[in-house]
């Protein structure tokens, strides 16, 4: 293997590892995976073009070599990780890891990520902040799926008579393939192998360019003055140094536009492959970098489970608020050159944000509209205090285990013959299957807790997902809203039995309408003639894709309620910086103006402090491992209010005479904190899907009782 290629592997795995270790600092490190994809494209093309693909055995030989290189180590790490999950993590994390371990066995983790991220109520299962030890295997799923089709791609290219035509074909594939990758839903494109083909094709470009110019190198520095027109003042190794410098932007401490930096990194990697550097000290004279490339595959497999287990066991301090702290650094003497670096005022405590590379447009479930996740306020970053203590042991354990696996397992199995390899891989697959079965059927897995801790776990788990199956005091007269898309899209609708009053009340929104509906209805004590609610997945009541807001409008226009509650947790769109003639504000005002024509009073739930997904599981892990540090899970009130200030300001700009915007956050506030659990009962106020639990409902009763009295007295 060329040393320069191994050095590129070394750089790539360093970038990825640094990103996973300190993503708030090395915010572009995820681009190391893109380097791997280009290298894979080049190596597969090189291997498959050594001789013409003609026979079935040419395919089987290629697949065997790939499987021999990858599967024995892959299935061993999956097996070890799966076993450790049941001894290091609480059982409430098992389901997530069960799902993703199964997908990993079939090398389809990337496909499961796509599925879960598109399901509104499964997004938290795919959340990169949760201890999912198999999450990083998405990239190997992409690579293995590429390997399956690579021989067929090269077989098709054989139809072209010259290497020049082949180069043009793969170059067009790279350019054209980048367009849908850029335009389609970011999370889908990130994980979907066909939309990554443009990067593998960039590796193909490097190969065929080398074939077209087998002896040609980049211009060397002029050694004579005889032919000044054919020389450049800089040589090939200077170009290589510039290329390496470009790749170093992967660890630049400020987020770069991924739509710009990703193609630059991809093409730079292809250029460095073509350059075939043999002298550059940056790439080749660092033996440690070459060795890192040699063990890069093992490091990639091992580092994420190690980081996950250490962060769980040692600190488990979570970035409950997705917000940012940064400092602008100006180069002395060059005032125009400044960068915003996401460091706190001091380096301790270090900051942490696992806001994966998907902090870019994603599709709102079932809406057909592309929403952009909020661009956090540049004055804030998530606090991840004691995580700094995880870095050193995680790094040491990753290095030691990778070196041991490389010398004691990987090197020996690569010397085995095909019968031994097939036997080894089959044994590992069987072992994985048996463990998968055992953890579901046998009870000796996992940990045993004291009765007091077990009671707390059971009580908190029982309060999960009450919004999905609310404890209704009265059966719905009908759940059929007479809409053709109701069953397909999971709209929740309920018309309750008539009360003994005269008010007509509607509650509309998203799952929060379902979550809080009974708390609202209880406070009216049946003093209404009609009460119904409509919960639309991904709906926000006052702004949305047109077909969702039209549905709300139809309901209000049809039933003409006296009192309209708009109960929704808002999307991150509403937290984006406010623009002049702000589109969201205009949309809210347009819909409110329509509602005012048909109702007498409107109550709008204001913006809530942001708590991370899977909060309940994080809370329970603290209860088990670090009960003395539970207070760390409460939110700093100033930081939380700063994070949602744009949402609050947008709602303050609503023009509505019949509206009242009410804020539930004060009921959770105490001594500068927003409480996330009851300090006396150790019961969480928030569940995994960021809905309010039964314990939290008790805090809301005075607020909704006041609103009910006001509506009854004034309408």
UniProtKB/TrEMBL annotation:
Protein name: Protein CBG10356
A GO CC annotation given for this chain: membrane
Biological process terms in GO annotation: polysaccharide biosynthetic process
Alphabetical list of InterPro entries matching this protein: Acyl_transf_3_dom, Acyltransferase_3, SGNH
One GO molecular-function entry: acyltransferase activity, transferring groups other than amino-acyl groups
High-level lineage: Eukaryota, Metazoa, Ecdysozoa, Nematoda, Chromadorea
Domain of life of the organism encoding this protein: Eukaryota
Keywords: Membrane, Transmembrane, Transmembrane helix
Transmembrane helix as UniProt keyword: yes
Transmembrane segments annotated in the record for this chain: 12-45, 73-94, 133-155, 167-190, 234-254, 260-276, 288-312, 389-409, 415-435
Domain SGNH, chain residue ranges per copy: 476-705
């Amino acid at each position: 293997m060329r040393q320069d290629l191994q050095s590129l592997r070394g750089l790539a795995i360093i970038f990825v590892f640094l990103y996973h270790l300190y993503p708030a600092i090395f915010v572009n490190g995820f681009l190391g995976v893109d380097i791997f994809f280009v290298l894979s494209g080049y190596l597969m093309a090189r291997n498959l073009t050594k001789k013409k693909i003609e026979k079935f055995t040419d395919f089987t030989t290629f697949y065997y070599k790939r499987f021999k290189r990858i599967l024995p180590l892959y299935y061993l790490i999956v097996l070890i990780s799966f076993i450790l999950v049941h001894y290091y993590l609480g059982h409430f994390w098992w389901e997530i890891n069960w799902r993703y371990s199964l997908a990993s066995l079939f090398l389809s983790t990337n496909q499961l990520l796509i599925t879960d991220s598109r399901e509104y109520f499964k997004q938290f299962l795919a959340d990169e902040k949760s201890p999912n030890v198999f999450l990083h295997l998405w990239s190997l799923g992409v690579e293995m799926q590429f390997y399956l089709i690579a021989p067929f791609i090269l077989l098709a290219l054989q139809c072209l008579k010259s290497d020049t035509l082949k180069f043009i074909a793969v170059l067009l594939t790279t350019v054209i393939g980048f367009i849908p990758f850029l335009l389609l839903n970011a999370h889908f494109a990130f994980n979907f192998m066909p939309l990554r083909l443009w990067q593998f094709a960039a590796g193909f470009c490097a190969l065929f360019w080398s074939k077209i110019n087998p002896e040609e190198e980049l211009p060397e520095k002029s050694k004579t003055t005889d032919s000044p027109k054919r020389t450049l003042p800089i040589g090939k190794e200077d170009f290589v140094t510039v290329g390496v410098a470009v790749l170093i932007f992967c660890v630049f401490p400020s987020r770069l536009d991924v739509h710009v930096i990703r193609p630059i990194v991809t093409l730079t990697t292809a250029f460095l492959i073509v350059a075939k550097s043999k002298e550059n000290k940056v790439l080749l004279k660092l033996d440690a970098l070459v060795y890192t490339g040699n063990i890069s595959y093992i490091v990639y497999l091992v580092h994420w489970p190690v980081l996950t287990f250490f962060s769980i066991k040692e600190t488990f301090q979570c970035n409950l608020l997705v917000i940012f702290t940064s400092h602008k650094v100006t180069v002395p003497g060059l005032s125009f050159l400044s960068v915003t670096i996401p460091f706190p005022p001091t380096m301790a405590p270090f900051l942490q944000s696992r806001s994966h590379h998907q902090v870019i447009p994603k599709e709102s479930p079932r809406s057909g509209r592309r929403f952009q996740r909020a661009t956090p306020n540049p004055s804030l970053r998530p606090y991840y205090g004691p995580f700094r203590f995880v870095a050193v042991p995680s790094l040491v354990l990753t290095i030691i285990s990778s070196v041991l696996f490389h010398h004691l397992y990987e090197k020996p199995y690569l010397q085995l013959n095909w019968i031994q390899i097939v036997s080894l891989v089959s044994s590992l697959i069987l072992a994985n299957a048996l463990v998968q079965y055992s953890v579901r059927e046998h009870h000796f897995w996992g940990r045993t807790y004291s009765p007091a801790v077990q009671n707390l776990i059971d009580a908190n788990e029982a309060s999960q997902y009450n919004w999905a199956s609310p404890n209704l005091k009265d059966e719905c007269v009908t759940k059929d809203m007479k809409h053709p898309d109701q069953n397909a899209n999971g709209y929740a609708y309920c018309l309750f039995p008539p009360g003994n009053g005269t008010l007509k009340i509607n509650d509309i929104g998203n799952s929060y309408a379902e979550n809080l509906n009974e708390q609202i209805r209880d406070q009216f004590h049946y003093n209404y003639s009609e009460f119904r609610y409509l919960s639309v997945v991904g709906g926000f009541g006052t702004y949305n894709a047109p077909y969702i807001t039209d549905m709300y409008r139809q309901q209000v226009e049809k039933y003409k309620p006296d009192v309209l509650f708009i109960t929704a947790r808002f999307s991150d769109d509403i937290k984006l910086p406010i623009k002049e003639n702000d589109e969201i504000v205009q949309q809210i005002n347009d819909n409110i103006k329509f509602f005012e024509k048909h109702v007498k009073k409107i109550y709008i739930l204001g913006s809530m402090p942001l708590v991370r997904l899977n909060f309940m599981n994080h809370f329970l892990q603290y209860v088990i491992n670090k009960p003395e540090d539970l207070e760390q899970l409460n939110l700093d009130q100033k930081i939380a209010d700063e994070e949602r200030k744009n949402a609050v300001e947008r709602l303050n700009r609503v023009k509505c005479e019949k509206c009242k915007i009410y804020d539930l956050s004060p009921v959770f506030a105490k001594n500068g904190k927003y409480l996330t659990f009851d300090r006396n009962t150790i019961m969480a106020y928030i569940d995994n899907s960021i809905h309010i639990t039964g314990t939290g409902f008790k805090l809301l009763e005075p607020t909704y009782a006041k609103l009910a009295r006001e509506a009854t007295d004034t309408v």
